[in-house]
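user: Kindly work through both lines:
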Amino acid sequence: MSPAPGSRDAARPTIFKVIFPGLVAAVTALLFFGYWSLHREPVGAAPSRLQVDAQEKSAAKDAIELCWGRAKALPSGSGEAQIAQDACQQMQVQYEQTYRLTP
């Protein structure tokens, strides 16, 4: 069935039906990959200072949690338990001074 003589589809040239959407898709793909290639980290790049700080902070917090877990596992009242608790307390105080946070 052919379009009516006064319809808009009949008046549109092929360029707007086929080529224009293809160009739009190509430009969109180029912009996406161009942005990605400019904003990705290089393969051998060193981590940023913020990433290093976050990793150090997370490792310190994990160490404190592990310390408290092991200190509580020791027999209550023993000399070893007291030494472990003191060490954990010292680690926690140092964490709070360094990061201004409680773990």
User: Anything to note?
Assistant: Residues 35 and 90 are 47 Å apart (CA to CA). The helical segments are 8-11, 14-39, 49-73, 79-99.
